[in-house]
Amino acid sequence: MRSERRRHVASMSDDARAKALSSAAHNVMQVIWPEARLGSYAPTTYEIDPGPCEVRQHEPAALPWFADRTPNMIFRACGPLVAGPWGLPQPDDDCEEIEPDVLIVPLLAATAAGDRLGQGGGHYDRYLERRTKAGTRPRTIGLAWDCQLVDSLPTEPWDVPLDFLATPSRLYGAP
Ligand SMILES: Nc1nc2c(c(=O)[nH]1)N(C=O)[C@@H](CNc1ccc(C(=O)N[C@@H](CCC(=O)O)C(=O)O)cc1)CN2
Ligand SMILES: Nc1ncnc2c1ncn2[C@@H]1O[C@H](COP(=O)(O)OP(=O)(O)OP(=O)(O)O)[C@@H](O)[C@H]1O
Q: What is the spatial distance between Cα 159 and Cα 14, in angstroms, rounded to a whole number?
């Protein structure tokens, strides 16, 4: 799965990649409202870059932040990024904590029904459980290359399905 996607991404020209990212961003924007506070992610090499989705919002997007290697993820407003406990870039400790209204969620694979396979840390499921209990569950939009879409995934009781899945070619879950 990972190597197939790396090949797919590597085989695109810069122009084709920019067009794909822009169409994915267009699809994401169908289900974000202009004043929504957006939570996004710093992409790793084999994830789709959410950057073109962020630039269309009024406020800069917030990013996941970890104090240490415990799975307690929160979101902080983006400033200059520093290396976090997992080696991923994250906002500095003194950046403002944000509770995003909309989360763009990274994934390895997903189904049209919103089932999601992540990196296996359970960070998003735990975060969404907390926000759901607080009555402030954000809208969730998975962002994926078309080749990350699969017919079915094993689900676990704690999995929180995505509200929407956006790929460069379409938006799944739209009413
Ligand atoms: N771009 C991006 N940012 C993200 C995520 C993501 O999937 N993609 N996350 C999504 O949650 C959070 C970070 N998730 C992480 C998930 C796993 C590991 C990690 O190092 N895992 C170990 C093995 C863990 C285990 O199974 O015990 C490893 O891969 O070696 C690090 C960060 C927040 N930010
Ligand atoms: N709401 C939760 N409460 C407690 N533990 C949880 C919860 N959600 C997930 N976990 C734990 O996290 C582990 C990883 O879950 P899962 O494989 O669904 O992660 P993932 O969705 O792929 O990861 P991520 O969200 O970090 O990308 C599971 O073994 C599970 O025990």
A: 35
Confidence band of 1 (pLDDT split at 50, 70, 90): low
- Its ipTM equals 0.89
Extract the tokens encoding 85.
Answer: 């406990």
CATH of the domain at 25: 3.40.50.10420
C-alpha closest to that of 141 among 58, 51, 24, 59: 24
Count of structural domains within the chain = 1
| 57-64: Cβ within 8 A, 24+ apart | 57/32, 58/34, 61/100, 61/104, 62/37, 62/38, 62/91, 62/98, 62/100, 63/39, 63/89, 63/90, 63/91, 64/39, 64/88, 64/90, 64/123
Using DSSP's 3-state secondary structure scheme, residue 23 falls into: helix
Write out the residue range of the structural domain in which residue 100 sits. Answer: 2-172
Q: Which atom of ligand 1 is nearest to the CA of 124?
A: 11
CA 161 – CA 167 distance, rounded (Å): 16
Cβ of 119 closer than 6 Å to ligand 1, yes or no, is yes
Residue 87 alpha carbon to ligand 1 centre in Å:
9
113 half-sphere exposure, CB direction, 13 A CA radius: 9
Q: Tens digit of pLDDT for each residue in 100-120?
A: 999 999 999 999 999 999 988
Q: Is the pTM of this model over 0.90?
A: yes
Q: Is 170 annotated as a binding residue?
A: no
